[in-house]
Specification:
The structure is a single chain. The protein is α/β, with parallel strands linked by helices. About 35% of the residues lie in helices and about 20% in strands. The protein has two domains: about 150 residues, Rossmann fold (3-Layer(aba) Sandwich), CATH 3.40.50.10740; about 140 residues, LD-carboxypeptidase A C-terminal domain-like (Glucose Oxidase, domain 1), CATH 3.50.30.60. The protein contains ten helices and 13 strands. Strand 7, helix 8 and strand 8 form a beta-alpha-beta unit. The radius of gyration is 24 Å and the shape is globular.
């Protein structure tokens, strides 16, 4: 039998290799697509950290703006009265200009609390600014192994979204230490309600909230996971490792201290990045706007700029929901499945766990 020449063998090998590579390309592309979306673990139900019971420890830290030990005292005393132990972080009282210590100090304190197994919840002392400066310094392996509740809002939106997208854990969007009344007995009823909602969320109560009817509401009923937070941060995080996948979710948004044109711009960011396209529902909370400069008015309202962005979609939308930089800022369990019903009588949001 004639033996094939070495050139033929080489040609045959090359052709087989090319066919193998060609057949492998679709799989490679598919794996690349999966890897590219790997930070979005939200296809699976989020994990719930263990709900707290008396004797559990809550850590308090400053990942963003400066807070003194005196300012958090009312929060410490009240949470201790609920039966919890409080561990005050080393960043409390530290100051670097407007921040609660240097980036290194704030990151180290939060890292300790993320890692410490005995700390069952982390209460952020206040918002302001600063979490985005330290988020990529942090290692979240500890909270994956020992899930715990992270609590806060405003600038803490960075933590909520990063933890949801990278750790698939539920968190609590709520008021922080700087919102606790100094005199509990003299506090307004709405202050009492909103602060107690933090305890209710931490101890596993199912949450039910309502908002008034509005001619701007889009009626409907859905059940889906709840995600969101401060609109400025949601827009700022687009394309980063802390970005959030909103597909099939109920999204809630709120903001303060912005001009209406800037709200319009940020909503366009969400629209163009397809965060509004496949929502299950949209909740619009409090928006405290800066007045337009005289002679340079943008025109419209928060309702009109929102409805303009969602006019081509078919899902429930409610306005004036009690969340945001306002007194009626209730605790919401981010990542947890909720039912949202928007009817002519108003909106009802209820957690399923």
């Amino acid at each position: 039998m004639d033996r094939p020449c070495s050139i033929c063998l080489i040609c045959n090998f090359v052709m087989q290799r090319k066919n193998f590579i060609a057949s492998f390309i679709p799989l490679t592309l598919a794996l690349s697509a999966v890897k590219g979306n790997s930070l979005f673990t939200s296809a699976k139900p989020v994990k719930l950290p263990t709900y707290l019971t008396p004797g559990d420890t809550i850590g308090i830290t400053c990942p963003a703006g400066f807070t003194s030990a005196e300012e958090i005292k009312p929060a410490v005393e009240l949470m201790e009265s609920w039966g919890f132990k409080i561990e005050i972080g080393k960043a409390i009282g530290k100051r670097h200009f407007t921040l609660g210590g240097t980036d290194e100090e704030r990151a180290a304190d939060l890292q300790y609390m993320l890692d410490a197994p005995h700390i069952k919840a982390i209460m952020c002392a206040r918002g302001g600014y600063g979490v985005v400066r330290i988020i990529d310094r942090l290692n979240f392996d500890g909270i994956k192994h020992h899930p715990k509740w992270v609590i806060g809002f405003s600038d803490i939106t960075v933590l909520h979204n990063h933890i949801h997208s990278n750790c698939n854990l539920a968190t609590i969007h709520s008021k922080m230490c700087n919102s606790f009344p100094s005199n509990w007995s003299a506090a307004e009823p709405i202050q009492v309600e909103t602060i107690l909602s933090i305890k209710q969320a931490l101890t596993g109560e199912k949450m039910v909230y309502t908002s008034p009817s509005s001619v701007f509401n889009c009626l409907g009923s859905v059940t889906a996971p709840l995600v969101g937070g401060n609109l400025s941060l949601l827009a700022n995080l687009t394309g980063s490792r802390s970005d959030i996948n909103t597909k099939g979710k109920i999204l809630f948004i709120e903001d303060t201290g912005e001009y209406l044109y800037n709200i319009d711009r940020m909503l366009y960011n969400l629209l163009r990045s397809k965060k509004l396209e496949d929502l299950a529902g949209l909740i619009v909370g409090g928006f405290k706007l800066k007045p337009d400069d005289a002679g340079d008015e943008f025109g419209g309202s928060i309702q009109s700029v929102v409805l303009e962005k969602v006019k081509d979609f078919n899902y429930p939308v409610c306005f004036d929901f009690p969340v945001g930089h306002q007194r009626n800022n209730f605790a919401l369990k981010c990542g947890v499945v909720h039912s949202l019903q928007v009817s002519e009588n108003g909106a009802v949001l209820q957690s399923k766990s």
